[in-house]
Amino acid sequence: MALLYKIAIFFYSLLIRLASPFNEKAKLFVKGRKNWRETLQNKIEKDAKYLWFHCASLGEFEQGRPVIEEIKKQFPEFKIVLTFFSPSGYEIRKNYNLADVVMYLPVDTKNNAQTFIDIVKPEKVFFIKYEFWYNYINELKKREIPLYIVSAMFRENQQFFKNSYLGNWFRKMLFQFEHFFVQNETSAQLLKNIGLSNVTISGDTRFDRVAAIAKNSKEIPIVEKFKGNSTLIVAGSTWKADEELLVEFINQNKNIKFIIAPHEVSSANINRLQHLLIKRANLFSQINETIIDNCQVLIIDSVGLLSSLYRYGNIAYIGGGFGVGIHNILEAATFGLPVIFGPNYKNFREAVDLKSLGGAFPIKNLGELEFALNDLVNLKTQLEKASLINKNYIAKNVGSTLVIIRKIFDDRDLAY
Is there a single domain that holds both residue 85 and residue 174? Predict the structure, then answer.
Protein backbone atom coordinates (compact mmCIF):
# COMPACT_ATOMS: atom_id res chain seq x y z
CA MET A 1 0.00 0.00 0.00
CA ALA A 2 2.91 2.36 0.72
CA LEU A 3 4.08 1.86 -2.87
CA LEU A 4 0.64 2.73 -4.24
CA TYR A 5 0.61 5.85 -2.06
CA LYS A 6 4.02 6.83 -3.41
CA ILE A 7 2.77 6.41 -6.99
CA ALA A 8 -0.40 8.41 -6.22
CA ILE A 9 1.63 11.29 -4.76
CA PHE A 10 3.92 11.25 -7.81
CA PHE A 11 1.05 11.48 -10.29
CA TYR A 12 -0.77 14.09 -8.18
CA SER A 13 2.34 16.28 -8.22
CA LEU A 14 2.76 15.70 -11.95
CA LEU A 15 -0.83 16.69 -12.72
CA ILE A 16 -0.47 19.86 -10.64
CA ARG A 17 2.65 20.79 -12.60
CA LEU A 18 0.94 20.12 -15.91
CA ALA A 19 -2.00 22.27 -14.85
CA SER A 20 0.11 25.14 -13.49
CA PRO A 21 0.41 27.10 -16.78
CA PHE A 22 -3.39 27.18 -17.05
CA ASN A 23 -4.62 27.30 -13.44
CA GLU A 24 -3.72 30.03 -10.95
CA LYS A 25 -4.01 27.85 -7.84
CA ALA A 26 -1.89 25.13 -9.42
CA LYS A 27 0.68 27.77 -10.42
CA LEU A 28 0.88 29.04 -6.83
CA PHE A 29 1.08 25.45 -5.54
CA VAL A 30 4.15 24.77 -7.69
CA LYS A 31 5.82 28.17 -7.37
CA GLY A 32 5.39 28.25 -3.59
CA ARG A 33 7.27 24.95 -3.18
CA LYS A 34 10.16 25.85 -5.44
CA ASN A 35 13.53 25.72 -3.62
CA TRP A 36 11.76 25.04 -0.35
CA ARG A 37 14.83 23.41 1.26
CA GLU A 38 16.99 26.50 0.81
CA THR A 39 14.17 28.78 1.90
CA LEU A 40 13.53 26.78 5.07
CA GLN A 41 17.23 26.49 5.97
CA ASN A 42 17.64 30.25 5.66
CA LYS A 43 14.68 30.94 7.95
CA ILE A 44 15.36 28.42 10.70
CA GLU A 45 17.55 29.58 13.60
CA LYS A 46 19.99 26.85 14.53
CA ASP A 47 19.60 26.86 18.33
CA ALA A 48 15.93 27.85 18.58
CA LYS A 49 13.13 25.59 19.82
CA TYR A 50 10.36 25.10 17.27
CA LEU A 51 6.76 23.95 17.32
CA TRP A 52 5.30 23.03 13.94
CA PHE A 53 1.67 23.71 13.03
CA HIS A 54 0.22 22.40 9.77
CA CYS A 55 -3.11 23.49 8.26
CA ALA A 56 -4.68 22.47 4.99
CA SER A 57 -6.09 25.90 4.25
CA LEU A 58 -7.54 29.08 5.74
CA GLY A 59 -10.40 27.45 7.64
CA GLU A 60 -8.07 25.07 9.44
CA PHE A 61 -5.72 27.95 10.20
CA GLU A 62 -8.55 29.72 12.03
CA GLN A 63 -8.87 26.59 14.20
CA GLY A 64 -5.15 26.35 14.87
CA ARG A 65 -4.71 30.07 15.44
CA PRO A 66 -6.05 30.23 19.03
CA VAL A 67 -3.61 27.47 20.05
CA ILE A 68 -0.68 29.27 18.41
CA GLU A 69 -1.60 32.53 20.12
CA GLU A 70 -2.00 30.95 23.54
CA ILE A 71 1.34 29.15 23.22
CA LYS A 72 3.09 32.36 22.19
CA LYS A 73 1.59 34.06 25.24
CA GLN A 74 2.38 31.27 27.70
CA PHE A 75 5.64 29.98 26.21
CA PRO A 76 7.35 32.78 24.25
CA GLU A 77 10.58 30.75 24.15
CA PHE A 78 9.07 28.62 21.37
CA LYS A 79 9.24 29.69 17.75
CA ILE A 80 6.46 28.67 15.37
CA VAL A 81 6.71 27.04 11.96
CA LEU A 82 3.37 27.26 10.14
CA THR A 83 2.75 25.28 6.94
CA PHE A 84 -0.16 25.22 4.52
CA PHE A 85 -1.12 22.72 1.86
CA SER A 86 -3.38 25.04 -0.13
CA PRO A 87 -2.61 28.40 -1.76
CA SER A 88 -5.90 29.76 -0.43
CA GLY A 89 -4.49 29.47 3.08
CA TYR A 90 -0.86 30.39 2.47
CA GLU A 91 -1.45 33.40 0.23
CA ILE A 92 -3.74 35.05 2.80
CA ARG A 93 -1.72 34.20 5.93
CA LYS A 94 1.88 34.21 4.67
CA ASN A 95 2.56 37.34 6.74
CA TYR A 96 0.95 36.09 9.95
CA ASN A 97 3.01 37.84 12.60
CA LEU A 98 2.93 35.20 15.34
CA ALA A 99 4.56 32.58 13.13
CA ASP A 100 8.32 32.80 12.71
CA VAL A 101 8.28 30.74 9.52
CA VAL A 102 5.33 30.43 7.13
CA MET A 103 5.59 28.23 4.06
CA TYR A 104 3.91 25.59 1.93
CA LEU A 105 4.11 21.99 3.11
CA PRO A 106 6.48 20.14 0.76
CA VAL A 107 4.76 17.31 -1.09
CA ASP A 108 4.47 14.18 1.08
CA THR A 109 7.37 12.05 -0.10
CA LYS A 110 9.66 10.13 2.24
CA ASN A 111 12.68 12.25 1.28
CA ASN A 112 10.80 15.53 1.71
CA ALA A 113 9.47 14.49 5.11
CA GLN A 114 12.94 13.48 6.33
CA THR A 115 14.56 16.67 5.07
CA PHE A 116 11.86 18.97 6.41
CA ILE A 117 12.05 17.43 9.89
CA ASP A 118 15.87 17.39 9.78
CA ILE A 119 15.88 21.15 9.23
CA VAL A 120 13.09 22.19 11.62
CA LYS A 121 13.71 19.64 14.41
CA PRO A 122 10.31 20.39 15.95
CA GLU A 123 9.75 19.59 19.61
CA LYS A 124 6.01 19.11 19.11
CA VAL A 125 3.82 19.00 16.00
CA PHE A 126 0.18 19.98 15.55
CA PHE A 127 -1.92 18.92 12.56
CA ILE A 128 -5.27 20.71 12.37
CA LYS A 129 -8.58 18.91 11.87
CA TYR A 130 -8.27 16.71 8.77
CA GLU A 131 -4.59 16.48 7.83
CA PHE A 132 -3.12 12.98 7.50
CA TRP A 133 0.15 12.78 5.53
CA TYR A 134 1.61 9.27 5.63
CA ASN A 135 5.34 10.00 5.29
CA TYR A 136 5.37 12.94 7.67
CA ILE A 137 3.41 10.98 10.27
CA ASN A 138 5.73 7.97 10.00
CA GLU A 139 8.87 10.05 10.19
CA LEU A 140 7.68 11.93 13.27
CA LYS A 141 6.84 8.66 15.00
CA LYS A 142 10.27 7.18 14.18
CA ARG A 143 11.94 10.16 15.81
CA GLU A 144 9.58 10.09 18.80
CA ILE A 145 8.40 13.64 18.13
CA PRO A 146 4.88 13.97 19.59
CA LEU A 147 2.19 14.64 17.00
CA TYR A 148 -1.19 16.04 18.03
CA ILE A 149 -4.33 16.63 16.01
CA VAL A 150 -6.46 19.62 17.01
CA SER A 151 -10.21 20.17 16.52
CA ALA A 152 -10.47 16.83 14.73
CA MET A 153 -13.77 15.52 13.40
CA PHE A 154 -14.27 11.89 12.44
CA ARG A 155 -17.17 10.25 10.61
CA GLU A 156 -18.12 6.60 10.40
CA ASN A 157 -17.80 6.52 6.60
CA GLN A 158 -14.11 7.52 6.63
CA GLN A 159 -11.55 4.93 5.52
CA PHE A 160 -10.07 4.71 9.03
CA PHE A 161 -13.15 2.85 10.25
CA LYS A 162 -13.74 0.49 7.32
CA ASN A 163 -12.90 -3.20 7.60
CA SER A 164 -10.87 -3.40 4.39
CA TYR A 165 -7.26 -3.53 3.28
CA LEU A 166 -7.31 0.19 2.51
CA GLY A 167 -9.08 0.90 5.78
CA ASN A 168 -6.48 -1.03 7.76
CA TRP A 169 -3.69 0.92 6.08
CA PHE A 170 -5.29 4.26 6.87
CA ARG A 171 -6.11 3.16 10.41
CA LYS A 172 -2.44 2.46 11.17
CA MET A 173 -1.71 6.15 10.71
CA LEU A 174 -3.99 7.05 13.60
CA PHE A 175 -1.90 4.94 15.97
CA GLN A 176 1.09 7.19 15.31
CA PHE A 177 -0.53 10.21 16.98
CA GLU A 178 0.38 11.20 20.52
CA HIS A 179 -3.10 12.57 21.29
CA PHE A 180 -6.38 13.41 19.60
CA PHE A 181 -8.28 16.58 20.51
CA VAL A 182 -11.71 16.04 18.96
CA GLN A 183 -14.76 18.22 18.63
CA ASN A 184 -17.48 15.82 19.74
CA GLU A 185 -18.45 12.55 21.40
CA THR A 186 -19.08 10.83 18.06
CA SER A 187 -15.45 11.35 17.01
CA ALA A 188 -14.17 10.16 20.37
CA GLN A 189 -16.30 7.01 20.26
CA LEU A 190 -15.17 6.13 16.74
CA LEU A 191 -11.55 6.30 17.87
CA LYS A 192 -12.25 4.29 21.00
CA ASN A 193 -13.99 1.63 18.92
CA ILE A 194 -10.72 0.90 17.10
CA GLY A 195 -8.67 0.81 20.30
CA LEU A 196 -7.50 4.41 20.71
CA SER A 197 -7.91 5.85 24.19
CA ASN A 198 -5.57 8.85 23.87
CA VAL A 199 -8.53 11.10 23.12
CA THR A 200 -9.87 14.30 24.67
CA ILE A 201 -13.18 15.90 23.71
CA SER A 202 -11.97 19.49 23.70
CA GLY A 203 -14.51 21.05 21.36
CA ASP A 204 -13.85 23.41 18.48
CA THR A 205 -11.12 26.04 18.87
CA ARG A 206 -12.97 28.30 16.40
CA PHE A 207 -15.25 29.35 19.27
CA ASP A 208 -12.25 30.79 21.09
CA ARG A 209 -11.20 32.54 17.90
CA VAL A 210 -14.56 34.21 17.23
CA ALA A 211 -14.90 35.22 20.89
CA ALA A 212 -11.52 36.95 20.60
CA ILE A 213 -12.60 38.59 17.34
CA ALA A 214 -15.72 39.97 19.00
CA LYS A 215 -13.70 41.29 21.91
CA ASN A 216 -11.22 43.05 19.63
CA SER A 217 -13.49 44.08 16.77
CA LYS A 218 -12.84 47.45 15.16
CA GLU A 219 -15.13 50.42 15.46
CA ILE A 220 -16.21 51.68 12.04
CA PRO A 221 -17.94 55.04 12.65
CA ILE A 222 -19.15 55.44 9.06
CA VAL A 223 -20.99 52.10 9.31
CA GLU A 224 -22.54 53.13 12.62
CA LYS A 225 -23.80 56.32 10.95
CA PHE A 226 -25.03 54.32 7.96
CA LYS A 227 -27.10 52.10 10.21
CA GLY A 228 -28.61 54.90 12.29
CA ASN A 229 -31.81 53.63 13.91
CA SER A 230 -32.64 51.20 11.11
CA THR A 231 -32.64 47.42 11.18
CA LEU A 232 -29.41 46.32 9.52
CA ILE A 233 -28.93 42.99 7.74
CA VAL A 234 -25.30 42.03 7.11
CA ALA A 235 -24.78 39.59 4.24
CA GLY A 236 -21.31 38.10 4.53
CA SER A 237 -19.20 36.05 2.08
CA THR A 238 -22.00 35.95 -0.48
CA TRP A 239 -21.84 34.23 -3.86
CA LYS A 240 -23.87 34.91 -6.99
CA ALA A 241 -26.71 32.56 -6.02
CA ASP A 242 -26.99 34.20 -2.59
CA GLU A 243 -26.89 37.69 -4.05
CA GLU A 244 -29.61 37.04 -6.60
CA LEU A 245 -32.00 36.07 -3.79
CA LEU A 246 -30.94 38.93 -1.56
CA VAL A 247 -31.33 41.50 -4.32
CA GLU A 248 -34.92 40.37 -4.90
CA PHE A 249 -35.68 40.98 -1.23
CA ILE A 250 -33.74 44.26 -1.05
CA ASN A 251 -35.46 45.73 -4.09
CA GLN A 252 -38.85 45.15 -2.45
CA ASN A 253 -38.04 46.66 0.97
CA LYS A 254 -37.40 50.30 1.81
CA ASN A 255 -37.19 50.43 5.61
CA ILE A 256 -34.32 47.99 6.10
CA LYS A 257 -30.64 48.69 5.49
CA PHE A 258 -28.22 46.15 4.09
CA ILE A 259 -24.51 45.55 4.00
CA ILE A 260 -23.32 43.08 1.37
CA ALA A 261 -19.78 41.77 1.69
CA PRO A 262 -19.26 39.52 -1.36
CA HIS A 263 -16.83 36.63 -1.26
CA GLU A 264 -15.44 37.84 -4.57
CA VAL A 265 -14.50 41.54 -4.50
CA SER A 266 -13.25 41.90 -8.06
CA SER A 267 -14.45 45.03 -9.87
CA ALA A 268 -16.42 42.87 -12.34
CA ASN A 269 -18.35 41.16 -9.56
CA ILE A 270 -18.97 44.41 -7.68
CA ASN A 271 -20.27 46.04 -10.89
CA ARG A 272 -22.56 43.06 -11.52
CA LEU A 273 -24.01 43.39 -8.03
CA GLN A 274 -24.53 47.15 -8.37
CA HIS A 275 -26.44 46.70 -11.62
CA LEU A 276 -28.79 44.18 -10.00
CA LEU A 277 -29.85 46.64 -7.31
CA ILE A 278 -32.65 49.13 -7.82
CA LYS A 279 -32.16 50.65 -4.38
CA ARG A 280 -29.50 53.30 -3.76
CA ALA A 281 -26.24 51.43 -3.18
CA ASN A 282 -22.77 52.77 -2.50
CA LEU A 283 -19.35 51.19 -2.28
CA PHE A 284 -17.61 51.22 1.08
CA SER A 285 -14.47 52.62 -0.56
CA GLN A 286 -16.43 55.63 -1.83
CA ILE A 287 -18.78 56.31 1.05
CA ASN A 288 -18.65 59.64 2.88
CA GLU A 289 -20.70 61.64 5.38
CA THR A 290 -22.56 63.61 2.71
CA ILE A 291 -24.03 60.68 0.76
CA ILE A 292 -24.51 58.10 3.49
CA ASP A 293 -27.94 59.31 4.67
CA ASN A 294 -29.56 58.51 1.31
CA CYS A 295 -27.90 55.12 1.00
CA GLN A 296 -29.85 51.92 1.69
CA VAL A 297 -27.23 49.36 0.63
CA LEU A 298 -23.52 49.41 1.41
CA ILE A 299 -21.36 47.10 -0.70
CA ILE A 300 -18.02 46.14 0.83
CA ASP A 301 -15.44 46.19 -1.93
CA SER A 302 -12.42 45.20 0.19
CA VAL A 303 -11.45 42.31 2.46
CA GLY A 304 -10.75 42.08 6.18
CA LEU A 305 -13.74 44.03 7.51
CA LEU A 306 -16.48 41.43 7.76
CA SER A 307 -15.92 40.23 11.32
CA SER A 308 -16.09 43.83 12.58
CA LEU A 309 -19.14 44.67 10.46
CA TYR A 310 -21.24 42.07 12.25
CA ARG A 311 -21.13 44.13 15.44
CA TYR A 312 -23.43 46.67 13.78
CA GLY A 313 -25.94 44.17 12.41
CA ASN A 314 -29.23 42.85 13.69
CA ILE A 315 -29.44 39.81 11.39
CA ALA A 316 -26.82 38.02 9.30
CA TYR A 317 -27.07 36.19 6.00
CA ILE A 318 -24.08 33.89 5.45
CA GLY A 319 -23.14 32.97 1.89
CA GLY A 320 -22.00 29.71 0.34
CA GLY A 321 -25.02 27.58 1.16
CA PHE A 322 -26.06 27.26 -2.48
CA GLY A 323 -22.58 25.99 -3.36
CA VAL A 324 -20.22 23.60 -1.63
CA GLY A 325 -21.09 24.83 1.85
CA ILE A 326 -21.64 27.84 4.06
CA HIS A 327 -18.95 30.18 5.25
CA ASN A 328 -18.22 30.99 8.89
CA ILE A 329 -21.47 31.58 10.80
CA LEU A 330 -19.78 31.79 14.19
CA GLU A 331 -18.34 35.25 13.49
CA ALA A 332 -21.89 36.57 13.25
CA ALA A 333 -23.36 34.42 16.02
CA THR A 334 -20.80 35.64 18.55
CA PHE A 335 -22.36 39.13 18.24
CA GLY A 336 -25.78 37.63 18.82
CA LEU A 337 -26.98 37.87 15.23
CA PRO A 338 -29.51 35.28 14.07
CA VAL A 339 -28.06 33.64 10.96
CA ILE A 340 -29.71 32.72 7.66
CA PHE A 341 -28.02 30.58 5.00
CA GLY A 342 -28.64 28.32 2.01
CA PRO A 343 -29.44 24.60 2.03
CA ASN A 344 -25.91 23.11 1.98
CA TYR A 345 -25.11 23.41 5.68
CA LYS A 346 -25.43 19.91 7.14
CA ASN A 347 -21.68 19.22 7.24
CA PHE A 348 -21.27 22.15 9.64
CA ARG A 349 -22.00 21.14 13.20
CA GLU A 350 -22.57 24.68 14.44
CA ALA A 351 -25.18 25.30 11.73
CA VAL A 352 -27.04 22.11 12.59
CA ASP A 353 -26.86 22.94 16.30
CA LEU A 354 -28.11 26.51 15.91
CA LYS A 355 -30.93 25.44 13.60
CA SER A 356 -32.15 22.96 16.20
CA LEU A 357 -31.85 25.56 18.96
CA GLY A 358 -33.68 28.26 17.01
CA GLY A 359 -30.84 30.66 16.23
CA ALA A 360 -30.25 29.72 12.59
CA PHE A 361 -32.62 29.55 9.64
CA PRO A 362 -31.71 27.60 6.48
CA ILE A 363 -33.55 28.60 3.31
CA LYS A 364 -33.96 27.07 -0.15
CA ASN A 365 -35.60 29.86 -2.15
CA LEU A 366 -36.81 33.46 -2.15
CA GLY A 367 -40.07 32.62 -0.40
CA GLU A 368 -38.27 31.03 2.53
CA LEU A 369 -35.81 33.94 2.67
CA GLU A 370 -38.67 36.45 2.81
CA PHE A 371 -40.43 34.46 5.53
CA ALA A 372 -37.30 34.18 7.69
CA LEU A 373 -36.31 37.83 7.34
CA ASN A 374 -39.81 39.23 7.78
CA ASP A 375 -40.31 37.09 10.87
CA LEU A 376 -37.10 38.37 12.47
CA VAL A 377 -37.58 41.99 11.39
CA ASN A 378 -41.23 42.32 12.39
CA LEU A 379 -41.33 40.20 15.56
CA LYS A 380 -39.06 41.77 18.14
CA THR A 381 -39.41 38.86 20.56
CA GLN A 382 -38.36 36.39 17.84
CA LEU A 383 -35.25 38.44 17.08
CA GLU A 384 -34.33 38.78 20.74
CA LYS A 385 -34.83 35.07 21.36
CA ALA A 386 -32.64 34.02 18.42
CA SER A 387 -30.01 36.56 19.39
CA LEU A 388 -29.79 35.24 22.95
CA ILE A 389 -29.63 31.64 21.72
CA ASN A 390 -26.60 32.43 19.56
CA LYS A 391 -24.76 34.41 22.23
CA ASN A 392 -25.27 31.61 24.75
CA TYR A 393 -24.16 28.97 22.24
CA ILE A 394 -20.84 30.73 21.70
CA ALA A 395 -20.33 31.30 25.43
CA LYS A 396 -21.03 27.64 26.21
CA ASN A 397 -18.44 26.39 23.72
CA VAL A 398 -15.43 28.61 24.41
CA GLY A 399 -12.46 27.16 26.30
CA SER A 400 -11.20 24.49 23.91
CA THR A 401 -7.78 26.11 23.59
CA LEU A 402 -7.06 25.98 27.31
CA VAL A 403 -8.10 22.32 27.47
CA ILE A 404 -5.52 21.56 24.78
CA ILE A 405 -2.74 23.66 26.30
CA ARG A 406 -3.23 22.16 29.77
CA LYS A 407 -3.14 18.63 28.39
CA ILE A 408 0.02 19.11 26.36
CA PHE A 409 2.08 21.33 28.64
CA ASP A 410 2.84 21.01 32.32
CA ASP A 411 0.06 22.88 34.11
CA ARG A 412 2.56 24.23 36.63
CA ASP A 413 4.25 26.22 33.87
CA LEU A 414 1.09 28.07 32.84
CA ALA A 415 0.46 31.68 33.76
CA TYR A 416 -3.14 31.17 34.94
Answer: yes
Domain match, 53 and 190 both: yes
- Same domain? For 347 and 309 the reply is yes
What DSSP string runs through 325-380? -----HHHHTTT--EEE-S--TT-HHHHHHHHHTSEEE-SSHHHHHHHHHHHHH-H
| CATH code, domain with 46 | 3.40.50.11720
Report how far residue 99's alpha carbon sits from residue 86's, in angstroms, rounded to the nearest whole number: 17
Quick one: pLDDT band at residue 16, thresholds 50, 70, 90?
A: confident
pLDDT (tens digit per residue) in 139-189:
999 999 999 999 999 999 999 999 888 888 999 999 999 999 999 999 999
The SS3 assignment for 59 reads: helix
Looking up residue 327, the CATH number of its domain turns out to be 3.40.50.2000
Say whether both 137 and 42 belong to one domain: yes
Structural domain count of the chain:
2
Of 107, 106, 177, 108, the C-alpha closest to 136 is 108
DSSP assignments along 164-233, one per residue:
SHHHHHHHHHHTT-SEEEESSHHHHHHHHHTT---EEE---THHHHHHHHHHTPPP-HHHHHHHTTSEEE
118/167 same-domain check: yes
User: CA-to-CA distance for 312 and 305, rounded, in angstroms?
Assistant: 12
At residue 30, the 3 state secondary structure works out as helix
Do 127 and 254 fall within a single domain?
Answer: no
Confidence of residue 11 (pLDDT cuts 50, 70, 90): confident
Q: Are residues 160 and 140 in the same domain?
A: yes
Q: How far apart are CA 21 and CA 29, in angstroms?
A: 11
Query: The domain containing residue 312 runs over which residues?
Result: 219-397
pTM equals 0.82
Residue 23: helix, strand or coil by DSSP? Answer: coil
Dihedral angle of Cα 280, 286, 289, 290, to the nearest 10 degrees? -60
d(CA 339, CA 354): 9
In whole angstroms, give the CA distance from residue 119 to residue 197: 32
